[in-house]
Amino acid sequence: MLGFLPSLISISADDLATTTAYIGEIFADVSVFVWLAIGVPLAFFVIKKVIGLVRGNLR
């Protein structure tokens, strides 16, 4: 039943390389947003902790 499948779908090495490069570009572009999504909440957490430590030492 799957004997006809290779004749319907043909993928060359160039197609595979192009697709892999495109996927790599997508991950490179998205990585900025991932780092922002991790970094912004972490920065607020650290700032909150530092403010808490400073307030604790002043009293």
Automatic annotation (TrEMBL):
<keyword id="KW-0472">Membrane</keyword>
<feature type="transmembrane region" description="Helical">
    <location>
        <begin position="23"/>
        <end position="47"/>
    </location>
</feature>
<keyword id="KW-1133">Transmembrane helix</keyword>
<keyword id="KW-0812">Transmembrane</keyword>
<protein>
    <submittedName>
        <fullName>Uncharacterized protein</fullName>
    </submittedName>
</protein>
